[in-house]
Amino acid sequence: MEERKATRPGWKRPGREGAAASRTRPAGRRPVSRPLIGELALEAGLVPPDMLAQALDRQRQWGGRLGQILVSTGALRSGDLARLYGAQRGVPVVDLVAEPRDETLAKESDLDFYLRAACLPWRRRAGETIYVASDPDHARSAIAEHDGRFRPVFVTSQRDISRILTRDFGL
Fold first, then answer.
1. For residues 130 and 154, is the Cβ–Cβ distance under 8 A?
2. Could you tell me which of 50, 79, 116, 129 has the fewest CB atoms within 10 Å of its CB?
3. The model's pTM
């Protein structure tokens, strides 16, 4: 099976200059100053417009995050979502198969934390532990609370996190 790669797409679509930057979320949520996952997926050619429209309908009806809806319905692969998320936020993306984690960093006593935050310690660089997470925004604060300070967090797919936790911790 040929792997689809999400390259860093252009941030503006023809005739829509600044549209993504000026869009806001529903009432009570902060403004979005970055391109939306749905727009990035369309621009990268990962999701056809009709599948995106169906996913947006489901999101309006049931709530939830669009990327997770696209993955759960089979419209987008977990790895593609991770690459889009990384491009959207300017966060490095790690493929844990191609760039395995340092197995000495994770402790079995922290398994509950890894499961709750959907993260794992990945590598050490310059004495700093770098984590990988499927949702770095959520994991960043959980890691700071757990470790007592903020740490760098890169993005990886939820599938990679689940596979590593299952393999290495016997889940």
1. yes
2. 50
3. 0.74
